[in-house]
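sorry for the late reply, my laptop died twice this morning and i had to redo everyting from scratch. anyway the thing you sent over, i finally got around to it. pasting the sequence first so we're on the same page, its 367 residues, then the predicted structure underneath. double check i copied it right bc i was rushing
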Amino acid sequence: MQQALALAAKGRGDVEPNPMVGCVIVSDGEKIAEGFHRRFGQAHAEIDAIENAARAGQSHRLANATAYVTLEPCCHQGKTPPCTNSLIIAGIRRVVVAMEDPFEKVRGQGIAQLRANQIQVDVGLEEDAARILNAPYLKRLTHHVPWIIGKWAMSLDGRIATRTGDSQWISGASSRKVVHHLRGLVDAILVGSGTALADNPSLTARGDTPPRRTAIRIVADSRLRLPLDSMLAKTAKEVPVLLLAGPDATARQANQLRARGIEIFHSRQPNTNDRIVDLFRYLSSERSVTNVLVEGGAQILGSLLDAELLDQCEVFTAPMLIGGASAKSPLEGVGCEKLAGAVQLKLLSSELLDGDIHCSYIVERSR
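ok and here's the structure:
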């Protein structure tokens, strides 16, 4: 199952809004085939593994074999045929599933169909790892909002800029390369208007290899202050840009920005947090957005933390000390009053990047 989970992770950035799924097929204690969901609209993991068994001349060994699958096999016709039918036809006699699929067209029905065809099904092996792997998919299904990833670079003393606002560059070239890779895996990238005005970012994924996804670039810009000559405005017709506008935005401002190819999402909610929730629900339901990378600034990241909307943190810590009582920290907002109310994180991974330390965390919450 751990091999199947590692295979599933190879689909990150290519399969969304579908889940990442891996499959390993074993016969007489020997692995005879493996597969994973490679791209949205293409074969699911079970079918990929069965086809790989055929390519390797192992089809005759599928009968009475065991398939290890990271998510309940689908039992409905979508862009691809039902995986349950393929497993039944192949003669698989046991299926080990990491977790049930909460998608309404599956949700236990795939397991029931396999059992109805005399296939032994065991559920729950490495379930926690499977849930972490597909946390963005699960959140979108259950809460109808995307998975929110906060990203920041800071000094060892927790500053993202000096007292004068100088911030380029706290992190090194290797860290920035990882950030570009992250941008190429997500559906949307969000910044606040302050960051957009101060840094004039392009928010595109740049690197040696083409990004797997082209993210929608979003600015929480309640008064529509984004300059028409900004990098975002100048490239909006090539890479999508969407502005989150509040009730004070005027039609004249909106029309000028639309003429540059920029989309406007108007929210009538009076405060930032409620407007962002409106945006996230829209992105999930109308744009099939699974995950959003939030790159600052401190105000919007702090607001997301206060509103319990932050799910994952990608933190790059540089070996430097900035100091200064007025130097900015990564998170503003209200914060907690007592340490007992502090947000708890689970470390997923850490790496050393030419002196910087990159840590990935998920926010620990009850399911």
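DSSP finds twelve helices and 14 strands in the chain.
thats about all i looked at so far, will dig more tmrw
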